[in-house]
Design goal:
Layout: H1 5-9, H2 18-30, H3 38-45, H4 49-61, E1 65-68, E2 82-85, H5 88-95, H6 99-102, H7 106-122, E3 129-134, E4 140-147, E5 150-156, H8 168-176, E6 180-186, E7 193-196, E8 199-203
Parallel strand pairs: 5-6, 6-8
Antiparallel strand pairs: 1-2, 3-4, 4-5, 7-8
Helix pairs in contact: 2-3, 2-5, 3-4
């Protein structure tokens, strides 16, 4: 990837050293599921922001990562795109994580769920729009699938009994839109439970 593929997108990338490339991938892997910050990437890798953007664009072109658009649902909504890796094996390698270190990682679990959603969306002739919601007061919904005026909002809280505080963003969204259904992906042993009108708790294994 670093010594061949990326240089095929732009020959200028051949000047990037292997160490610079590895540092960039690691910094990018640490931002998995978080807002894209070119300034943060530049600071961590000693690569100019303009070049960092070009490298990111090249990795997106190579289907290594992509950007998920935010859903602007409130004044405090985060408006930056979110980074999502497309290959959990490459993400794990960029972080230097072994298989055992990945087991039990919430980030790894969410990335596996994202990959499954990608597969299912790819099988649809008319897939819904995927966006996410995050607010500055810590409310977060990683997956919002919208088609027309109907939406399915999904969050992941690996617990058998998530608290009302943990589900507040999802419940607020569902309450504000009569054509939205909310799903909380709980632990693998979570019982199927109605948490609120049109908000359900199911085990995350139901996705696969």
């Amino acid at each position: 990837l670093l010594t061949r593929d990326i240089a095929l997108v732009d020959a200028k990338f051949a000047a990037i050293t292997l160490r610079q490339g590895q540092n960039f991938l690691r910094a990018l892997a640490l931002l998995q599921g978080r807002a894209l910050s070119l300034a943060e990437l530049a600071n961590q890798t000693a690569i100019r922001p303009a070049l960092a953007k070009k490298i990111f664009d090249a990795l997106e072109m190579l289907s290594v990562v992509d950007r998920i658009p935010p859903a602007i649902l409130a004044k405090k909504s985060v408006r930056k795109m979110r980074i999502e890796w497309k290959d959990i094996g490459l993400w794990r390698h960029a972080l230097g994580l072994g298989v055992q270190e990945t087991v039990g990682s919430n980030d790894a679990l969410k990335l596996c769920i994202t990959q499954e959603f990608r597969t299912q969306l790819g099988l649809m002739s008319n897939p819904p729009l995927w966006s996410f919601y995050k607010s500055r007061d810590a409310g977060h919904i990683p997956w919002i699938f919208t088609r027309g005026n109907q939406s399915l909002a999904v969050s992941c809280i690996p617990s058998e009994n998530p608290s009302p505080y943990e589900t507040r963003a999802l419940r607020t969204l569902v309450e504000s839109n009569a054509k939205t259904v909310g799903v909380v992906l709980g632990s693998k042993h979570a019982p199927v439970t109605a948490l609120a009108p049109r908000v359900w708790l199911i085990p995350y294994t139901a996705v696969f």
